[in-house]
Design goal:
This protein has helices at about 5-15, 20-30, 30-35, 40-45, 50-60, 60-75, 90-95, 125-140, 155-165, 185-195, 210-225, 235-245, 265-270, 280-290, 295-305, 310-325, 330-335, 340-350, and strands at about 80, 100-105, 115-120, 145-150, 170, 195-200, 225-230, 250-255, 275-280, 325-330, 355-360, 365. The chain is of the alpha/beta class and about 375 residues long. Helix 1 packs across helix 6, helix 8 runs parallel beside helix 9 (about 155-165) and helix 11 (about 210-225) packs across helix 12. The radius of gyration is 21 Å and the shape is globular.
Length: about 375
Protein backbone atom coordinates (compact mmCIF):
# COMPACT_ATOMS: atom_id res chain seq x y z
CA UNK A 1 0.00 0.00 0.00
CA UNK A 2 1.34 3.45 -0.99
CA UNK A 3 2.42 5.03 2.32
CA UNK A 4 2.62 8.60 1.01
CA UNK A 5 -0.92 8.26 -0.40
CA UNK A 6 -2.15 7.10 2.99
CA UNK A 7 -0.61 10.12 4.70
CA UNK A 8 -1.95 12.48 2.01
CA UNK A 9 -5.44 11.00 2.41
CA UNK A 10 -5.10 11.20 6.20
CA UNK A 11 -4.42 14.95 5.92
CA UNK A 12 -7.52 15.30 3.73
CA UNK A 13 -9.55 13.55 6.44
CA UNK A 14 -8.35 15.74 9.35
CA UNK A 15 -11.35 17.86 10.42
CA UNK A 16 -10.92 21.54 9.63
CA UNK A 17 -7.97 21.05 7.27
CA UNK A 18 -8.88 22.36 3.83
CA UNK A 19 -7.21 22.11 0.44
CA UNK A 20 -5.10 25.27 0.74
CA UNK A 21 -3.88 24.34 4.22
CA UNK A 22 -2.93 20.82 3.06
CA UNK A 23 -0.74 22.26 0.30
CA UNK A 24 0.78 24.69 2.79
CA UNK A 25 1.57 21.92 5.27
CA UNK A 26 3.23 19.80 2.58
CA UNK A 27 5.13 22.81 1.27
CA UNK A 28 6.53 23.51 4.77
CA UNK A 29 7.26 19.90 5.69
CA UNK A 30 8.29 18.41 2.34
CA UNK A 31 5.73 15.58 2.14
CA UNK A 32 2.46 14.44 3.68
CA UNK A 33 4.29 11.78 5.67
CA UNK A 34 6.65 14.38 7.15
CA UNK A 35 3.67 16.42 8.37
CA UNK A 36 2.74 13.59 10.75
CA UNK A 37 6.34 13.33 11.97
CA UNK A 38 6.58 16.96 13.09
CA UNK A 39 6.66 17.96 16.74
CA UNK A 40 3.83 19.94 18.24
CA UNK A 41 5.94 23.11 18.50
CA UNK A 42 7.03 22.86 14.84
CA UNK A 43 3.45 22.45 13.62
CA UNK A 44 2.28 25.44 15.64
CA UNK A 45 4.85 27.63 13.88
CA UNK A 46 3.20 26.97 10.50
CA UNK A 47 0.78 29.80 9.54
CA UNK A 48 -2.87 28.79 9.82
CA UNK A 49 -2.23 25.87 12.21
CA UNK A 50 -3.75 26.11 15.68
CA UNK A 51 -4.08 23.84 18.71
CA UNK A 52 -7.11 21.90 17.42
CA UNK A 53 -5.51 21.06 14.06
CA UNK A 54 -2.16 20.27 15.68
CA UNK A 55 -3.81 17.87 18.14
CA UNK A 56 -5.74 16.17 15.33
CA UNK A 57 -2.53 15.61 13.35
CA UNK A 58 -0.48 14.39 16.32
CA UNK A 59 -3.06 11.89 17.59
CA UNK A 60 -3.03 10.26 14.13
CA UNK A 61 -6.63 9.06 14.23
CA UNK A 62 -7.16 9.98 10.58
CA UNK A 63 -4.38 7.55 9.56
CA UNK A 64 -6.52 4.52 10.48
CA UNK A 65 -9.44 6.03 8.60
CA UNK A 66 -7.21 6.68 5.59
CA UNK A 67 -6.02 3.06 5.45
CA UNK A 68 -9.62 1.82 5.49
CA UNK A 69 -10.58 4.36 2.83
CA UNK A 70 -7.73 3.28 0.55
CA UNK A 71 -8.54 -0.41 0.97
CA UNK A 72 -12.15 0.29 0.04
CA UNK A 73 -11.05 2.31 -2.98
CA UNK A 74 -8.89 -0.57 -4.21
CA UNK A 75 -11.74 -3.03 -3.69
CA UNK A 76 -14.24 -0.86 -5.59
CA UNK A 77 -11.76 0.09 -8.36
CA UNK A 78 -11.74 3.75 -7.42
CA UNK A 79 -8.59 5.80 -7.99
CA UNK A 80 -7.60 8.32 -5.35
CA UNK A 81 -5.56 10.97 -7.14
CA UNK A 82 -3.43 13.24 -4.97
CA UNK A 83 -2.57 16.77 -6.08
CA UNK A 84 1.01 15.63 -6.75
CA UNK A 85 0.07 12.67 -8.99
CA UNK A 86 0.90 12.98 -12.73
CA UNK A 87 -2.65 11.83 -13.59
CA UNK A 88 -4.22 14.61 -11.47
CA UNK A 89 -5.92 17.14 -13.83
CA UNK A 90 -3.48 19.90 -14.81
CA UNK A 91 -6.37 22.30 -15.36
CA UNK A 92 -7.18 22.06 -11.65
CA UNK A 93 -3.55 22.54 -10.63
CA UNK A 94 -3.70 26.03 -12.11
CA UNK A 95 -6.35 27.24 -9.61
CA UNK A 96 -5.63 28.25 -6.03
CA UNK A 97 -8.49 26.36 -4.36
CA UNK A 98 -8.04 23.10 -6.28
CA UNK A 99 -9.08 19.97 -4.36
CA UNK A 100 -6.12 18.31 -2.70
CA UNK A 101 -7.29 14.93 -3.96
CA UNK A 102 -9.97 13.38 -6.14
CA UNK A 103 -11.83 10.07 -6.09
CA UNK A 104 -12.20 8.84 -9.68
CA UNK A 105 -14.14 5.85 -10.98
CA UNK A 106 -13.91 5.29 -14.72
CA UNK A 107 -11.51 4.96 -17.60
CA UNK A 108 -11.03 8.48 -18.97
CA UNK A 109 -7.98 10.74 -19.04
CA UNK A 110 -8.80 13.82 -16.96
CA UNK A 111 -6.04 15.64 -18.88
CA UNK A 112 -8.03 15.25 -22.09
CA UNK A 113 -6.90 17.73 -24.81
CA UNK A 114 -10.31 19.47 -25.04
CA UNK A 115 -12.99 19.74 -22.36
CA UNK A 116 -16.38 21.45 -22.39
CA UNK A 117 -18.67 21.87 -19.40
CA UNK A 118 -22.41 21.98 -20.08
CA UNK A 119 -24.66 23.13 -17.24
CA UNK A 120 -28.11 24.60 -16.77
CA UNK A 121 -31.43 24.53 -15.01
CA UNK A 122 -32.88 21.40 -13.45
CA UNK A 123 -36.19 22.28 -15.16
CA UNK A 124 -34.99 22.06 -18.75
CA UNK A 125 -37.44 22.97 -21.49
CA UNK A 126 -37.70 21.25 -24.89
CA UNK A 127 -35.77 24.26 -26.27
CA UNK A 128 -32.93 23.70 -23.81
CA UNK A 129 -32.73 19.96 -24.46
CA UNK A 130 -32.70 20.57 -28.21
CA UNK A 131 -29.86 23.10 -27.78
CA UNK A 132 -27.83 20.53 -25.85
CA UNK A 133 -28.32 17.94 -28.60
CA UNK A 134 -27.24 20.37 -31.34
CA UNK A 135 -24.22 21.54 -29.33
CA UNK A 136 -22.95 18.04 -28.50
CA UNK A 137 -23.43 16.93 -32.11
CA UNK A 138 -21.41 19.94 -33.29
CA UNK A 139 -18.58 19.06 -30.87
CA UNK A 140 -18.22 15.44 -31.98
CA UNK A 141 -15.57 16.26 -34.61
CA UNK A 142 -13.42 17.80 -31.86
CA UNK A 143 -13.77 14.70 -29.65
CA UNK A 144 -14.26 16.81 -26.54
CA UNK A 145 -14.74 15.47 -23.05
CA UNK A 146 -18.15 16.66 -21.79
CA UNK A 147 -18.30 17.63 -18.11
CA UNK A 148 -21.38 18.26 -15.98
CA UNK A 149 -22.89 17.53 -12.58
CA UNK A 150 -25.38 14.62 -13.06
CA UNK A 151 -28.26 16.85 -11.88
CA UNK A 152 -31.77 16.80 -13.30
CA UNK A 153 -32.46 18.81 -16.44
CA UNK A 154 -29.63 20.12 -18.61
CA UNK A 155 -26.85 18.23 -16.79
CA UNK A 156 -28.19 14.72 -17.25
CA UNK A 157 -29.27 15.47 -20.82
CA UNK A 158 -25.69 16.56 -21.63
CA UNK A 159 -24.28 13.32 -20.18
CA UNK A 160 -26.79 11.14 -22.05
CA UNK A 161 -26.25 12.96 -25.34
CA UNK A 162 -22.46 12.67 -25.00
CA UNK A 163 -22.78 8.91 -24.50
CA UNK A 164 -25.20 8.67 -27.45
CA UNK A 165 -22.74 10.51 -29.70
CA UNK A 166 -19.77 8.44 -28.55
CA UNK A 167 -18.05 11.19 -26.55
CA UNK A 168 -16.46 10.74 -23.13
CA UNK A 169 -18.30 12.41 -20.29
CA UNK A 170 -17.46 13.14 -16.65
CA UNK A 171 -19.91 13.72 -13.81
CA UNK A 172 -18.64 15.69 -10.82
CA UNK A 173 -20.57 14.60 -7.73
CA UNK A 174 -21.55 16.55 -4.64
CA UNK A 175 -21.48 13.32 -2.63
CA UNK A 176 -19.24 10.32 -2.09
CA UNK A 177 -18.29 8.28 -5.16
CA UNK A 178 -20.55 5.51 -3.83
CA UNK A 179 -23.58 7.77 -3.33
CA UNK A 180 -25.24 8.46 -6.68
CA UNK A 181 -27.49 11.50 -6.51
CA UNK A 182 -30.13 11.75 -7.73
CA UNK A 183 -30.74 8.00 -7.54
CA UNK A 184 -32.87 8.19 -10.71
CA UNK A 185 -29.62 8.79 -12.66
CA UNK A 186 -27.85 5.71 -11.35
CA UNK A 187 -28.15 3.80 -14.64
CA UNK A 188 -26.59 6.67 -16.59
CA UNK A 189 -23.87 7.05 -13.95
CA UNK A 190 -22.94 3.37 -14.29
CA UNK A 191 -22.78 3.72 -18.08
CA UNK A 192 -20.49 6.72 -17.64
CA UNK A 193 -17.89 4.56 -15.92
CA UNK A 194 -17.28 2.96 -19.34
CA UNK A 195 -17.71 6.22 -21.27
CA UNK A 196 -15.83 8.61 -18.98
CA UNK A 197 -15.76 8.85 -15.21
CA UNK A 198 -17.42 9.82 -11.95
CA UNK A 199 -15.36 12.31 -9.93
CA UNK A 200 -15.63 13.75 -6.44
CA UNK A 201 -13.45 15.15 -3.67
CA UNK A 202 -15.70 13.67 -0.97
CA UNK A 203 -14.97 10.57 1.08
CA UNK A 204 -16.97 7.38 0.72
CA UNK A 205 -20.42 7.66 2.24
CA UNK A 206 -20.64 11.47 2.03
CA UNK A 207 -24.28 12.44 1.57
CA UNK A 208 -25.41 15.02 -1.02
CA UNK A 209 -25.82 17.85 1.48
CA UNK A 210 -26.51 21.34 0.13
CA UNK A 211 -23.12 22.81 1.13
CA UNK A 212 -21.30 20.26 -1.05
CA UNK A 213 -22.68 21.56 -4.34
CA UNK A 214 -21.00 24.99 -4.57
CA UNK A 215 -17.74 23.12 -3.89
CA UNK A 216 -18.68 20.61 -6.61
CA UNK A 217 -19.35 23.49 -9.02
CA UNK A 218 -15.78 24.83 -8.68
CA UNK A 219 -14.43 21.46 -9.86
CA UNK A 220 -16.72 21.51 -12.91
CA UNK A 221 -15.51 25.03 -13.71
CA UNK A 222 -11.88 24.13 -13.13
CA UNK A 223 -11.92 21.05 -15.35
CA UNK A 224 -13.27 22.96 -18.35
CA UNK A 225 -11.60 24.76 -21.20
CA UNK A 226 -15.01 26.23 -21.97
CA UNK A 227 -18.23 26.31 -19.95
CA UNK A 228 -21.61 26.54 -21.69
CA UNK A 229 -24.73 27.60 -19.77
CA UNK A 230 -27.72 26.35 -21.76
CA UNK A 231 -30.69 27.47 -19.65
CA UNK A 232 -30.67 29.15 -16.25
CA UNK A 233 -33.18 31.00 -14.13
CA UNK A 234 -32.54 34.12 -12.11
CA UNK A 235 -30.58 32.09 -9.53
CA UNK A 236 -29.07 28.63 -9.34
CA UNK A 237 -26.02 26.41 -9.48
CA UNK A 238 -25.37 26.99 -13.19
CA UNK A 239 -24.89 30.71 -12.59
CA UNK A 240 -22.61 29.99 -9.62
CA UNK A 241 -20.53 27.71 -11.86
CA UNK A 242 -20.34 30.45 -14.52
CA UNK A 243 -19.17 33.01 -11.94
CA UNK A 244 -16.47 30.63 -10.70
CA UNK A 245 -15.38 29.83 -14.27
CA UNK A 246 -14.93 33.54 -14.93
CA UNK A 247 -12.67 33.88 -11.88
CA UNK A 248 -10.62 30.94 -13.23
CA UNK A 249 -10.24 32.72 -16.60
CA UNK A 250 -12.19 30.01 -18.39
CA UNK A 251 -14.15 30.85 -21.54
CA UNK A 252 -17.84 31.08 -20.61
CA UNK A 253 -20.67 30.85 -23.13
CA UNK A 254 -24.43 31.21 -22.76
CA UNK A 255 -27.24 30.29 -25.14
CA UNK A 256 -29.74 33.16 -25.43
CA UNK A 257 -33.44 32.53 -24.92
CA UNK A 258 -36.88 34.06 -25.02
CA UNK A 259 -36.92 37.22 -22.89
CA UNK A 260 -40.26 36.15 -21.40
CA UNK A 261 -39.06 32.67 -20.41
CA UNK A 262 -37.95 32.52 -16.75
CA UNK A 263 -35.38 29.84 -17.62
CA UNK A 264 -33.62 32.19 -20.03
CA UNK A 265 -33.17 35.03 -17.51
CA UNK A 266 -29.78 33.81 -16.26
CA UNK A 267 -28.29 33.19 -19.72
CA UNK A 268 -29.52 36.49 -21.12
CA UNK A 269 -28.10 38.36 -18.12
CA UNK A 270 -24.70 36.66 -18.46
CA UNK A 271 -24.55 37.83 -22.07
CA UNK A 272 -25.84 41.34 -21.28
CA UNK A 273 -23.25 41.86 -18.53
CA UNK A 274 -20.38 40.51 -20.68
CA UNK A 275 -19.86 37.54 -18.38
CA UNK A 276 -20.46 35.08 -21.21
CA UNK A 277 -20.09 35.03 -24.97
CA UNK A 278 -23.29 34.52 -26.93
CA UNK A 279 -23.50 31.01 -28.35
CA UNK A 280 -25.94 29.92 -31.05
CA UNK A 281 -24.07 26.84 -32.28
CA UNK A 282 -20.86 24.89 -31.83
CA UNK A 283 -19.31 27.09 -34.54
CA UNK A 284 -19.34 30.07 -32.13
CA UNK A 285 -17.35 28.04 -29.60
CA UNK A 286 -14.98 26.79 -32.30
CA UNK A 287 -14.27 30.34 -33.41
CA UNK A 288 -13.58 31.80 -29.96
CA UNK A 289 -11.60 28.75 -28.78
CA UNK A 290 -9.70 28.62 -32.09
CA UNK A 291 -10.63 24.98 -32.53
CA UNK A 292 -9.98 24.86 -36.28
CA UNK A 293 -9.00 21.81 -38.28
CA UNK A 294 -5.41 23.15 -38.39
CA UNK A 295 -5.47 23.49 -34.62
CA UNK A 296 -6.76 19.94 -34.29
CA UNK A 297 -3.81 18.72 -36.37
CA UNK A 298 -1.42 20.72 -34.17
CA UNK A 299 -2.97 19.13 -31.08
CA UNK A 300 -2.45 15.67 -32.55
CA UNK A 301 1.15 16.55 -33.46
CA UNK A 302 1.76 17.83 -29.92
CA UNK A 303 0.54 14.52 -28.53
CA UNK A 304 3.15 12.76 -30.68
CA UNK A 305 5.86 15.17 -29.55
CA UNK A 306 5.09 14.47 -25.90
CA UNK A 307 5.58 10.75 -26.41
CA UNK A 308 9.26 10.86 -25.35
CA UNK A 309 8.49 12.49 -22.00
CA UNK A 310 7.95 10.80 -18.65
CA UNK A 311 4.61 11.23 -16.88
CA UNK A 312 6.13 13.81 -14.51
CA UNK A 313 7.80 15.74 -17.36
CA UNK A 314 4.55 15.75 -19.32
CA UNK A 315 2.63 16.94 -16.25
CA UNK A 316 5.05 19.84 -15.57
CA UNK A 317 5.13 20.91 -19.23
CA UNK A 318 1.34 20.74 -19.59
CA UNK A 319 0.94 22.87 -16.46
CA UNK A 320 3.36 25.48 -17.83
CA UNK A 321 1.48 25.60 -21.12
CA UNK A 322 -1.84 25.93 -19.29
CA UNK A 323 -0.58 29.00 -17.39
CA UNK A 324 0.56 30.58 -20.71
CA UNK A 325 3.37 32.58 -19.09
CA UNK A 326 6.83 32.24 -17.63
CA UNK A 327 6.97 30.77 -14.13
CA UNK A 328 9.57 30.91 -11.40
CA UNK A 329 10.81 27.68 -9.88
CA UNK A 330 9.12 28.70 -6.61
CA UNK A 331 5.77 29.06 -8.38
CA UNK A 332 6.23 25.72 -10.09
CA UNK A 333 7.15 24.05 -6.82
CA UNK A 334 3.95 25.38 -5.23
CA UNK A 335 1.74 24.42 -8.18
CA UNK A 336 3.18 20.93 -8.61
CA UNK A 337 3.91 20.25 -4.92
CA UNK A 338 7.18 18.65 -6.05
CA UNK A 339 10.37 19.07 -3.98
CA UNK A 340 12.60 21.67 -5.63
CA UNK A 341 15.39 19.14 -6.13
CA UNK A 342 13.14 16.82 -8.13
CA UNK A 343 11.60 19.77 -9.97
CA UNK A 344 15.03 21.14 -10.93
CA UNK A 345 15.98 17.77 -12.43
CA UNK A 346 12.73 17.63 -14.41
CA UNK A 347 13.21 21.18 -15.73
CA UNK A 348 16.79 20.42 -16.72
CA UNK A 349 15.63 17.33 -18.59
CA UNK A 350 12.91 19.35 -20.36
CA UNK A 351 15.51 21.97 -21.26
CA UNK A 352 17.77 19.31 -22.80
CA UNK A 353 14.77 18.01 -24.76
CA UNK A 354 14.12 21.53 -26.03
CA UNK A 355 10.70 21.75 -24.34
CA UNK A 356 11.41 24.66 -21.95
CA UNK A 357 13.65 27.72 -21.94
CA UNK A 358 15.59 28.71 -18.81
CA UNK A 359 15.53 32.48 -18.26
CA UNK A 360 17.53 34.61 -15.79
CA UNK A 361 16.41 34.48 -12.16
CA UNK A 362 15.35 30.80 -12.24
CA UNK A 363 12.41 31.61 -14.52
CA UNK A 364 11.19 29.01 -17.00
CA UNK A 365 9.01 29.30 -20.10
CA UNK A 366 7.54 26.53 -22.28
CA UNK A 367 8.57 26.38 -25.93
Amino acid sequence: MDQERIYFLALHLVPGVGDILIKQLISYCGSAQEVFRQTRSRLLRIPGIGDVTTNAIINGLSLDQAEKELRRAEKEEVQILCFTDPAYPNRLKSIDDAPSLLYVKGNTNLNHPRTVGIVGTRKATPYGRNCVEELVLGLVKHQVLVISGLAYGIDIHAHKEAIRQGLGTVAVLGSGIDVIYPLAHRETALRMINHGALVTENAFGTQPDAHNFPQRNRIIAGLCDALVVVEAGDKGGALITAEIANTYNRDVFAIPGNIHNPYSLGCNRLIKTNKASLLTSAKDLEYIMNWTEDQAQKTAQLALELGDLSDEERSVLSLMRTKKRSLSIDELAYLTQLPQGNLSSLLLSLEFKNRVVALPGKIFAPR
